[in-house]
Known about the structure:
14 helices; about 325 residues; mainly alpha
Amino acid sequence: MDTAPTARPAPSSPFSATTAGIACGMGAGALWGLVFLAPQLAREFSPLQLTVGRYLGYGLIALALVGPRWRTLVAPIGRRQWWSLAWLALAGNTLYYVLLSSAVQTGGIAMTSLVIGFLPVAVTVIGSRDQGAVPLRRLLPSLLLCAAGAVCIGAQALDQPAAASAPRPLFGLLCAIGALASWTAYAIGNARCLARFPAMSPQDWNLLTGLATGAQSLLLLPLAFALGPASHGADAWARFGAVSAGVAVLASIAGNALWNRMSRLLPLTLVGQMILFETLFALVYGWLWERRWPARLEIAALCFVVLSVLSCLDAHRMGAARPAA
């Protein structure tokens, strides 16, 4: 797929578009943060089984919503768009979640959270090369605040007693770096695909991505349940089905739709900062699940996250005001 920078059409009201985009980014982060509770709710199943269950449900729901207008929806889609959907589904859903789960299991939560915490930095740096983007030097304070928040999250994880030893830290580090690269490629590629295909609504693009992800999960289904534990009770299977369906509807259908909408409203340099809301809400849900107050480093991380987004937003406002002046 051609990933050359593409200029976005200027919205009629930049401030209202930015406000709506940030609201969509916060909503996506709130829904995506729920996926971190899924392994706790269905602990009897392996990460690969949870991945297949989530995205198979995503694909089935997307198929049900797309089915009545299939011919009309796919008429303008060519081979290039189908290939784009296939690799976006792999990079942003299937491959990313498998790499992330493997990194946690073999390298530990502390290392994984620290590496993945640099997602906003990677997306923002690459997005700064787009035509008309805010210069990287103006985004430096936001990037430094983002990095400080990621370091606080990793340091807090290091302070926690390890639930299990990390058997292969080097392999876990490689998996975490792979997950970082995979989701960075998805965030950038998805935003540019939406910009090049304005006739497709963000929700329809999300549903078509769900079909591609569901097809990939169907191929992984035999492998997931051949390698993972096979003996489960009826209650465990019922809980697994409920968790998979709930995450598919809330995180994949609704969350991805909000993210796609945001990707059309915001430049890539600001899109990168929106990923921080997933980490923020995941921390909040974790505190509620564990029934505890946040630690000092966690509070500091939240402050850095908020300041990073506000600093990035201020840089974009100055960039928009300068041409107008």
